[in-house]
Amino acid sequence: MTRVLVVEDEPQIVRALVINLKARRYEVDAAADGASALELAAARHPDVVVLDLGLPDMDGVEVIKGLRGWTRVPILVLSARHSSDEKVEALDAGADDYVTKPFGMDELLARLRAAVRRAEPAAGSGEGEVIVETDGFTVDLAAKKAVREGRDVRLTPTEWHLLEVLVRNRGKLVSQKQLLQEVWGPSYGTETNYLRVYMAQLRRKLEADPSRPRHFITEPGMGYRFER
At which residues is the DNA-binding region annotated (predicted)? Predict the structure, then answer.
């Protein structure tokens, strides 16, 4: 069973999430503040975290950073904050998706399922058993691993999925809409700030000079391209 950690201080939202998740056979833990969330995550090892940013003891972004220090677990943010800057801050800290309050339960559950799918190992296939080398790093599609200067690069499931789509289409322009739908799901297509944040993260982790990328190329207004 998939284990979900709900981090939320509004009892009515917690109750609604717990009821709906358990009805769909998820195991659920709940925390009302950031410190409890970090303790529960370490003790229970959830498969996905649903996290409110407005917690009583610390900002949810700090919780994301605390989790990202040791785990790649998918993090789905809930927040009443609607500004683009705040969404980018959460994504940049390591969140995988962002849902604004008030939200529909069906939409939230669909996004949660998509986050869990991104974290699952892909079924192996002959065409997937490929190693792509550049002058600065190597991508092993079969092992789902990137290596730079002899060391494994720590990538979240969402970062890996984005990298994988680009590498499998190396040399080709991949449109913003295609990337969003392949990585986040078919209901996505306009959340271009997600791509901007995650491409910056990939460049920071893999490019020799992230400000002048050689491998992850932006085609303004159209999409992105991976070049060896």
Answer: 129-228
In this structure, which amino acid lies at residue 146? A
pLDDT in tens, 132-186: 999 999 999 888 899 999 999 999 889 999 999 999 999 999 999 999 999 988 8
Is residue 51 within 8 A of residue 64, CB to CB? The reply is yes
d(CA 17, CA 70): 26
Owning domain of residue 36: 3-119
- For 221, the 3-state DSSP assignment is coil
Which has the closest alpha carbon to 84: 100, 96, 104? 100
Domain count, the chain: 2
Same domain, 17 and 106: yes
Final residue of a domain: which of 101, 119, 137?
A: 119
Phi, psi torsion values for 27, nearest 5 degrees = -90, 140
pLDDT in tens, 111-124: 999 888 888 765 44
d(CA 170, CA 151): 23
Cis peptide before 186 (omega within 30 of 0): no
Q: Quick one: 110 and 139 in the same domain?
A: no
- Tell me the whole-structure pTM to 2 decimals: 0.78
Cβ(47)–Cβ(4) under 8 Å?
yes
Question: Of the candidates 80, 100, 119, which is a domain's last residue?
Answer: 119
For the domain that residue 29 is a member of, what is the CATH number? 3.40.50.2300
